[in-house]
């Protein structure tokens, strides 16, 4: 399996390209601000054909380039139904800053329009795209419609989870912004994240890759939940 990714834009949002192998169709996950040049390099280097964009949630740093990307390639964008509204107003549903402020911090580049082809997804749905099987798991807490995409174990390949802003290396997504809910986050961590296999590779929305086993042992939020405690909302990132 081919997995290529990098941190894009001023928020260092992880952007991923996944395909069964070079020379195949691919899916693009969370195209952030300024991802276009590097994306074109990845597609050309690996002879990949994009067929869909997957969005873990609707915050502006994860959806910045989705409209031009889907338009240029004539492909759909997938997002959980409860975050669909954010695509129509990504600034207002994410930040309190003005449009001018946002422009000033992104070199005057603004690509925030509603994609033409948006398909909503829901909990438990199985997506068969680009030769990949991805299971949708609704994991609210960071936003109402946050979702993670699980790629099951296959032969010698460990399972993979695209965790968005639900789980990071050593921490979790913040819940003190519009749409955040600490109780929902606890339920998502307990019922969606913790049951995953220890060797499951975590591809998070920000920061380094990790595994569920490593986070089970070292992540203070998961450790607190496993101990039966109550976690305190983190304050980091977007």
Task: Walk me through the structure.
The chain has about 240 residues and is an alpha/beta fold. The protein has a single domain, classed as 4-Layer Sandwich (Metallo-beta-lactamase, Chain A). The chain has 7 helices and 14 strands. It has a 6-stranded mixed beta sheet, with helices on one face. The chain has a 6-stranded mixed beta sheet with strand order 7-8-9-10-13-14. It has a two-stranded antiparallel ribbon with strand order 11-12. The longest helix is centred in the C-terminal third of the chain and has 12 residues. The model has no long low-confidence stretch (mean pLDDT about 90).
Briefly say what this structure is:
By secondary structure, the protein is an alpha/beta fold. It has 7 helices and 14 strands. Helices cover 23% and strands 27% of the residues.
Notable traits:
alpha/beta; six-stranded mixed beta sheet; Metallo-beta-lactamase, Chain A; globular; single chain; 238 residues
What's the topology here?
Layout: E1 2-8, E2 13-19, E3 25-29, H1 36-46, E4 49-54, H2 60-63, H3 66-73, E5 77-80, H4 99-104, E6 118-121, E7 126-129, E8 132-138, E9 147-151, E10 160-164, E11 167-168, E12 171-172, H5 182-193, E13 201-204, E14 210-211, H6 212-218, H7 220-226
Parallel strand pairs: 3-4, 4-5, 5-6, 10-13
Antiparallel strand pairs: 1-2, 2-3, 7-8, 8-9, 9-10, 11-12, 13-14
Helix pairs in contact: 6-7
């Amino acid at each position: 399996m081919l997995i290529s990714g990098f941190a894009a834009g001023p928020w260092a949002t992880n952007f991923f390209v996944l395909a069964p192998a070079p020379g195949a169709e691919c899916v693009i996950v969370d195209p952030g601000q300024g991802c276009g040049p590097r994306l074109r390099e990845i597609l050309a280097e690996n002879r990949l054909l994009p067929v869909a964009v997957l969005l873990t949630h609707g915050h502006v740093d994860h959806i910045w380039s989705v409209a031009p990307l889907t338009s240029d390639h004539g492909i759909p964008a997938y997002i959980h139904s409860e975050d669909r509204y954010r695509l129509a107003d990504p600034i207002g549903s994410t930040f309190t800053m003005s449009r001018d402020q946002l422009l000033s911090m992104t070199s005057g580049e603004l690509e925030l329009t509603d994609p033409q082809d948006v398909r909503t997804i829901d909990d438990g749905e199985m997506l068969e795209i680009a030769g990949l099987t991805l299971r949708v798991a609704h994991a609210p807490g960071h936003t109402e419609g946050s979702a993670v995409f699980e790629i099951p174990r296959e032969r010698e390949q460990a399972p993979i989870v695209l965790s968005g802003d639900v789980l990071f290396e050593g921490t979790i997504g913040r819940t003190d912004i519009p749409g955040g809910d600490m109780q929902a986050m606890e339920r998502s961590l307990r019922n969606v994240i913790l049951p995953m296999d220890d060797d499951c590779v975590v591809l998070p929305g920000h920061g380094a890759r990790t595994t569920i086993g490593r986070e089970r042992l070292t992540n203070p939020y998961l450790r607190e939940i496993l101990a039966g405690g109550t976690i305190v909302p983190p304050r980091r990132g977007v």
